[in-house]
Design brief:
Elements lengths: L21 E2 L4 H13 L10 H21 L2 E2 L2 E2 L5 E2 L6 E2 L9 E2 H12 L5 H16 L2 E11 L2 E16 L1 E2 L6 E4 L5 E2 L7 H6 L3 E2 L1 H16 L5
Antiparallel strand pairs: 1-4, 2-3, 4-5, 6-9, 7-8, 8-12, 9-10, 10-11
Helix pairs in contact: 1-2, 3-4, 3-6
Length: 229
Amino acid sequence: MQYENGGFPQYYPNKAIYRKQITYNDNAMINALTVLYNVSESKNDFDAVDSALKLKSKTALKKGIECILKNQILQNGIPTIWADQYDEMTLKPAKARAFEPVSLASGESVGIVKFLMMQPATPELEKSIRNAVKWFEENKIEGYSYKLVKENDKTIRVLSEEKGAVIWARFYEIETNKPIFGDRDNSVKYNYLEISEERRNGYSWYNDSADKLIARDFPKWLTTNHLSQ
């Protein structure tokens, strides 16, 4: 199912609509590459796999990492983070469902960075990781939390002020780094409260996953690889 350029589709062999696109959404490609990594390195109970398959997995893993680096979006020549989906031919960022616009995707990008940190450090990977972490540091939303709460026997998602809290929007406009929010009518809003109630409560629009990446995982990775802060 892996494309020659190293990417993985969301579905295989179903190629309808957005399913054929290179997909980081829901960690689809990263999960596939993690299996290949474990096979190639005989980790997590994959030590019984025969050597020929391990070699094929190593080759596929290398191609996948090369694709990830190509997919990292540049702003004025500087690497940032990644989109949810990419056109499988052109490698340009693409939209998926009506409420998933072309954008920078924060949550999936955290998973990508963590996966890259599992690999042997190279100058290319170091540059990619450092710039992604820098982007997260520069685009965090401080003083807000995003939680599921019970209200009138319904579970709703609530964005509220909370001292000391930090979150990131799920999607950011590629050109401006402004948080954006999609709706079922293909519209894109800059205000979370302007999308329909159904989408506000039926989709997760913020996350805090980059907080641990910045505070714990990145410093540990630097120390493990003897790299400067």
